Amino acid sequence: MPISLSKGGNVSLTKQAPGLTAVNVGLGWDLRTTTGTEFDLDASAMVLDSTGKIITDQHFVFFNNLRTPDGGVEHTGDNKTGEGEGDDEVIKVNFGAMPDTAERVAFAVSIYDAETRSQNFGQVRNAYIRVVNQTDNSELARYDLSEDAATETAMVFGELYRNGAEWKFKAVGQGYASGLAGIATDFGVNL
What we know:
By secondary structure, the chain is mainly beta. The protein contains three helices and twelve strands, in the order E-E-H-E-E-E-E-E-E-H-E-E-E-E-H.
């Protein structure tokens, strides 16, 4: 049975699914009526060390860098419209392939060219992040974002983190008015 989380809540994925080795992190959203301007949301992941900073710039996974050098995190591709049911973008995480220095993986969604297009997360509805066991496709955890983020152009939806031998998931829901660049800078990515 999947665990539905509130902002700040967390769950042990390892206890939910003993022997868990890999997950798919699905991110989804629907768009409210806008001016008709194309709306493109992009999922990204940052593999972080114990200081909360990116391990290397190659551990920032997004539409222009789909895979970490070790293969621990892989983006399955950019969905430029958000149309259709289910996950709009998926990022795969293989716990065994991650470097020993990896302590967290933060998952963000940003609006491409938001400032030019006058778009923000206040125009996005039904946004969520979910964690799915790759072995049997069972949903382990889900966080439905409910905040009205009228000034934010990017958000950290959630994060996987290591706690001893366990991997856990935390619902974050932290908005940024500075877009993906603001998130990347906060996590130590060299832009």
